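Handout, page 2. Input:
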Amino acid sequence: MAVTNGNGTKVEEQDESEIVLSVRDVTVAIDDKLILDKLSLDIKRGEILGFVGASGAGKSVLLRTILGLLRKQSGTIKLFGVNVDKASDIERLRIDMRLGVLFQHGALFSALTVQENVQVPMREYLDLPKKLMDELALLKIELVGLPPDAAQKFPSELSGGMIKRAALARALALDPDIVFLDEPTSGLDPISAAEFDELVVKLRDTMDLTVYMVTHDLDTLFTACDHVAVLGKKKVLVEGTIDDMLKSEEPWVKSYFRGKRARQLDLAARA
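Output:
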């Protein structure tokens, strides 16, 4: 069924039961500076969304607002069909347990081992015996492709790629339904970044995850993302598949997705 959005454009109405995250007319200002202005966005179950935009446009601001780390001035955010502003404490707790987050640069606790870092959400939300938490943490560590001996290492002993994987293991600690990844391949070499992208797709397929990924990595957008949303002018300018991005005449989108490097990636992906 076609409906008309605020820009007068006809779009297909989505089945609400398939929408994991719904953002409607969200406005966020920081120190009286308007960052997001009536922004709307949906993410469907099982989708890997790449959220992209110019530096400073507000990508991480929206992520933190969705997670409740920043206050919005207006608008509605629904997770799993529940308006988070109207959720009871019990409903909010249940929602939080269905979310996993990988913050930019990993944000591991430096004084904790990898295994202890992965156990942080378990200690926060569950009441489990230590032996069981140890076994579950080792399972998550193996799941993200880290060797068993990484469990007893501290973040300072890990490479950049291992830190990202350890942070992903922590994000998966409670078997979430949706994971939020903030620049997950930032700072990684091309091979490590490609391997991480492959891991995310594999985990989505095997764990039935929905993935919200803030990124600027063209390789990731071309190879891992089912859907792309572009932030600009304080709103979502364009959203759709990579093919939609390549056809867009929006100046920033055109420059970003049809520049020299993007064309090379597109040719490689289609080869």
